[in-house]
Each structure stands twice: as C-alpha cells, then as structure tokens.
Amino acid sequence: YALKNAKLLDSSEINIAIPKDYKGRQVINDITYSIKPKFIYKVGEVSYAQFALDKRDLQKTDSIIILIDMTISPYDLGVAKVSPEVKKLSKRKRKEYLKTNGFYELPEFDEIAVYGENKETDNLNLVSDIQGFVEKTISYQSFFGKDLGPKYALQNGKGDCTEYSDLMIALCRVNNLPARRVSGYTVKSESNDALSKIFKFGSHAWVEVYFEGMGWVPFDPTHSDDSRSTSFEHLQTKYVYYGYDENSKITDFWKYW
Hints:
Strand order of the largest sheet: 3-4-1-12
Oligomer: single chain
Strand content: 25-35%
Number of helices: 8
Number of strands: 12
C-alpha cells in the first residue's frame, strides 16, 4: 500500500481490510507487517489492521507491506455439490440477504428476457439463467470510482465487477434466493483469457448465493463473461475473501493531518 505524498503529512491513520479464515475456502497461516499495526479490529464481519503513523514514521517509509501466508482451496458449485460447507442461515440473516428495497431495488424488467419462457425451474437452473442474463446484459468497463448499482447496470448495460455482482444479487433476491456480495481480491492467474489478463491481481467483487443443503456457493459473473476458464459451475482457485458488503461499504480508508 503506497503512501502517496506521505512525507508532506504530519500524521496519518490508515485502516486496511485483511482476510481471515473461511472454512472450505481459505486458511490464514501467518500475516507479517512491515510496520506493526496499532491494533486489529472488526467492523461487522470484516477485520481491519489500523496503522497510526507520526511524522517521523512517514519520513522513513513510503509504503506499508503486508505479507500473507495462506492456503486457498478450490471451492465452487462443482465442489459444493460433492462436499458442501453447509451453515444454517438464521431468519435474521435470510431476511437481510433477501432485501430488494433501497440499493437493490430494480425497475420493471422483461422477465422472459431473464428467465426464458419457463421460469418454473429448480433454483440452480434459475441462478444459472440469471448469471447468463447478467453476462449478456453487461459489457465490462474499468472501475467507475464508485458502485453504481443494479438499476444502472440494467438500464445502461455496462459496469465493472460491482455492477455485475449487484445485478445478479438483485435478480436472485427478487426470486427469494438469499444472495450477497463478496469483497476480496484475486491472486495471479495463469490463464490466457482476455479478462483474466486484466485481473492479474487486485480488488474484486463476486457473488454468493445460499442454497438449502449446500450453503453459500460462490459465482463470478464478471470473470465468466467471455472466459473459458471460469464458468457457472467452475471457478479458478484464485479468490481471497475478506468480507461481505451491501454496496461498497468495505474498503481501505485513511485519515491524515
């Protein structure tokens, strides 16, 4: 994490989201910091490392380096069908992940365009139809600087990973399927697919949908759009989770004086 113009500051407080263990997906073996954090704290389900730097600290460094030794396990729909990580969803959480008002409210849309002629199908096929619609509807554009939401994505047909995820979540929730957005990043991929080249390393958003008997299952409508290595059924082993959010509330942030 580069500290831009750090030597001009008198002091700075920097808060960086860090990953944690997620059963079936990832295990954090060790985390090493180039500068010792003031403390580690949580906001909701997200852990942050806070760094408090005075003028002397800022004169000595122009970056904070965090080295994470972790084990990432393959987990996607294909794995979940065979060996699911089932965690019972409480009534309160179910209600939270079914909200369709506010940010996830959609305008009227053509249901046949989304679900085809026969909407009455099992939940897996329904989610597959939804992801396919999202991929056909949105053309990828570089990060806008803020999350513009599912309504924008549906009406304008363009967006980054946040809009891809937002639209898929909203359509799942309309169909009474609990869905949430995952915040994290992807590690380097060896794929030659065009989209994978864009996402060598960096912040990313994708989707988890809850199924009875399987629990939370991840899907990535952004990376499966025009990709041969990522699909509805299969995700590459490259995803690092650090939390869930409703419209970009999870982020690194800092204060300075």
